[in-house]
Prior knowledge:
The chain is mainly beta. The protein contains ten helices and 52 strands. Helix content is 7%, strand content 47%. The longest helix has 16 residues, at 3-18. The chain starts with a helix and ends with a strand.
Amino acid sequence: MNKLKLLSLVLFILPVTLFAQNNITGVVKSDDGEELPGVTIIVEGTTQGTTSNFNGEYSISAPADGNLVFSFIGYLSQTVPVNGQSKINVVLKQDIEELEQVVVIGYGTVKKSDLTGSVTSVKAEDLNPGANASVEQALQGRVAGVQISQKSNEPGGGLSISIRGSGSIQAGNEPLYVVDGVIVNNGSVAGTGGVGFTGNQNPRNPLNSLNPSDIASLEVLKDASATAIYGSRGSNGVVIITTKKGSKGKLRVGYDGYYGIQQVYKPLDVLTATEYKDVLNSIIDLGGGDELQRIDEIEGGGTDWQDLIYRTAKTQNHNITMSGGAANLTYFSSINYFEQEGLVEGSSMERFNTRINLNYDDKEKMRAGVNLNGSYIFDDFASTGLGINENGGAIYTAINYDPVIAPYTEDGSYRKSDFFVGDNPLAILNGEDAVAETFRFFGNTFLEYFILPELSAQAKLGGDVQNVRRDIFIQPYTVSGAGTGGIASIQTGRKDYVSVEGTLNYNKQFGENSLSGVVGTTYEYFQTKTFAGDARGFALPDLGTNAIGSGDPLLNNLGSGRTQAKFISYLARVNYSLKDKYLLTASFRADGSSRFGENNKFGYFPSAAIAWKMHKEGFMGDAEWVSELKPRFSIGSTGNASIGNELTYQTFSAGNQVLFGDSFYSTIVPSRISNPDLTWEKAVQIDVGFDFGLWENRLTGSFDYFNKETTDLLVSIPQPMNTGFTGQIQNMGGVRNQGFELTLSYDVIRTTDLYWNLSGNFSTLKNEVLNIGDRGDIIHGGLSQLPDFAIITPGEALNSYYGYIVDGIWQTDDDFSVTNDNVSPGDIKFRDITPDGTINSEDRTIIGDPIPDFTWGLTSNLQYKNFSLDVVMQGVQGMDKLNGNLANSMFPNNFRQNRIATPLLERWTPENPSNKYPSYVNPLASGGTSALINSITVEDASYIRLQSVRLGYDVAVENINFLNKLSFYVTAQNLFTITDYLGTDPASNASGSNTLAVDFNAYPIPRTYLLGVNVEF
Length: 1017
C-alpha cells in the first residue's frame, strides 16, 4: 500500500473513531431512592441534551470517550464519563445549601441566586424568639424597609406594618398577606366597641389566628417586580408565609413550650400624691385654678392608680407537632395552645390552634396537597380605649384620676372624685366587661398535573371563614351605666373569602439557559355579614348579655349589614436565564373588581426586571474572594383596592320615621353619591439594587434604592351642602416614597466549636405629597379631645403635624408690647408667624412628621458547642409623635386631674424661670384649644430597644435512642429602651393607623421573661 492510500485510510478511520456515538440509556434517582423527572442531561462541551421522563428514564447519544453532565434544581450537578458504556444509572445528591436558598415568590418559587426583584426571605429559625402572639411581632427589626408599630400592647393587639412607606390617604396601607397561597382576609369583622363601651378601639391582629411556630419561611416582597403579580393589592408590599411540611421517614413527634411572666416596663411617670398636692396648690397660689380646688389632705397616704390596675401577668405556650411520610405522601400537623394575660387587670387572650398539611407527590404525573388551619380565640378586653374627654377607659382614668383620694369608701364601695367626671379606675375595670370569641378556618387544596415533565397545570381552591361574637356589659354602678340599669351590647359578624385559581406552569432548561413561566386566572369572592344589638334598663343586671331581651324595649337599638365584593384576575410571568448570567423577569396582571365604577372595572399592572450575575463573567478573573455580585433593576406598576365595598354606587340607608295621618312610617334615604369613574390607586416603583457575597459568602448583603409614586389617591372630597351629601370618594393627588436599604450578614467566627454571626439592616425613607388635586390643604386627625393635628399638603410628608412652634416661655423682663394677647410671665410663647401680634390658627405651621429618617435592626447569633446566645436590637431615628397624654397634662380640661410629672415639676415659677415648661396658671392664654398641638407635645420618638435575648442549650442525644432533639432556653424581651420620649412606649400608636402616629392612653409595653423546652421524639 502506497503512502497516499495509507494516509487516506488513517484520515477516514480517525474521525470515525473519535466521534463514534454510543446510545446511552439509564435512570436518574435521588439519594433517597426516588426517580427524578425533568433532570437535564447534557453532553459536556456541546448543546446536545435531553431530560428524564416521569420515571427518571433518559436516552441520549454521546461519544464513547465523552462525559455526561446531570443537573437538577436542588441537587448537586454530577459529571459522569461515558467510557463506552451503553447504560448509566445516576444518583443525585441533594444540595442542602441550594435547597435553603429557594425562596417563595408569587405563584411560584425561585432560587435566591436567580432573584431579579427585591425580596427578603426569613426562615423560621431567624424569627424573633419570645412570647409572640402573631407573626408581625416575630418579624420586628428583621427586614430592611419594614416598619412595625404596635397599635396596642394588649394581648392580641393589632400591629401596623409599613413596607417602604405609606402612599395612601384613605385606602389601606397594610401589606397583602398570603399564607400557603391563600390571601388572608384582613380587618375586623364585628365592631370594636359597643354602645357606651370606652375600651379597645383597635382592631385585632389579622394574623392572630396563625401559630407562629407553624411557619417554615416568610418572604417579604418589596419592589414592583416582585409584587406586580398580585396587581391591585400589591402596592403596599406582600408578605408570603409558608408553613411547615412533612418529610419522608418515620413519625416524628415534637413538643415546644414555654412559661413566663410579663411586667410593666415603664408606667407613665405622673405626680405622686404629695407632688400633686404641692404643685396644684402652688398653681392656685399664683392665680390658677380655684380656691375650692385646693387640696387640704391626702387620704390614706394617697393612691397610685396605675399600680392598682397593672399586674404581673403570666404567659404560656404549648405546641405539639407530628410529621413524617412514606412512599408518595408526607404529612405535618400541629396543636397549639397560647395564653397571655394582660398587664391591665381583666384583660387576656387565649388561642387554640390546629393545623394539618398533607402533600402527595408521585413524581410522575401529579402533585396534590391540603393545607388547613383552624383556630379559636377568646379575648377578654379591658376598657382601655381613647375615650371621650374624661370617659377614656381604665388607663386614661388611672393616669389622670385624683391621687389624693383612697380607692374605696368606708362601706367598701368605689370612691368617687368630687372634681373628676370620669369613673374610679377600679370601677371601670370591674364594671365594664367585654369579651369576644373568634372562630376562624382558612386553608386550601391543590392539584397539579404534569402534561410534560416541564409543563404542568394546577388548580387551587382556597377559603377563609371568620365568625366573631362580642359581648359587652356595663354595670349600673359605673358612671356610664348609672341611671339606665346597665347597658348590654351583642355584636356578631361573619367574614367569608373564597378563591379559585387555575395556572399553567412551565420550567425548562436548555443547556446553560433556562425558561420558566406561569399563566393563569383567579376568581375571588368576599362577603361580610354583621349584626349588632344593644339594650338598657335591666331589672336584673346580673344576667348581663345572657338576657339582653329583658331590657327596656323602648331603649333597644338594632342594626345589621351585608357587603360583598368580587375579583377576577388574569396573570402571567416569565423568567429567563441566559447562560446562568443574564436574568430577565416580566409579569403582567389584569384585575377586575366590583369595588370600582362601571367605567373602570379593570386595572392593568405590568412589571419587568433584569439582573446580571457579574461574578460569573470572565473579566472578573481569579477574584475568588467574590462569591456573588449581582446588580439588578426593576420597574413596575401595582394598585390599591383597599377601600369599602359599593363606594362607587349610590346607596340608601334607613331614615327617620314620618307621620302620615295617624300612623308612623319608616323611610329610606340616599346615603352616598354614585361615582362611575372611581378607579384604582396606582403605584409605579423603580428599584435599583445589587446582591453580593464575599469570601465564600462569609460576608453577604444587598443594597437597594427605590422610588415609588402613588397616584389617583382615593380620597373623600367634601360636597356642596345643596347636594345633601357631605362627601364623595374620588381619585386625586399623588404621594412619593423613596429611600435606601442595606442588609448585611457577616460570619465573624467559623470554627467547629465556635460560630458567631452578626447581621443587620438599615433603611431610610423620604415621604412627600406630590399634589392633592385642585383642592386646598387637608387638615384632619382629631382624636378624643385633641383638635385636628395632621396636614396633607404638597411638598411635605403625608400627615405632617400641624401646630404651633414654641419659642420658649414669657419671662418677667420680656417686651410684652409685641403681643396683643393677654399673656403673663410663665405663659407659653408661641411663634407669631403672620406676624400680627395675635396667636391664632393662621400661626400654625408644620412642626414635624411621623416618618422616621431611618430604621435599623441588629442581630447577633453566637454558638459555642451546645450553647447558643441570640440577641436582637432595633431602633428608629427621626420619627416625631404626638404625645396626647403630654398635651392633656399641659392643657388639662380639668384642673383637678393628675399630670405627667416632668413638665409640672420643672414648670416656670418666679423662683425657677424655666424656658421650656410654662407655669400652668393660664395654659390657654393664646392659641385656644388648638394650642394643644405644638412643638413640645409633638415629641421626638426616636429610640433604641433591646428587643430580645435568648440563651439556649442543646442536650447531646446521640446515645438516646428515642430522642432526636432536646434543648432548653431562657428568653427575655424588651429589657430596655433608650429614648428621650416622655410616653410609656415610643413605638406605640393609639390611632390604629400607619400614617398617623399618636400616643394616647397607650397600653404599657411588657417586659417578658420565659423558660422553655424543645423536644423531638
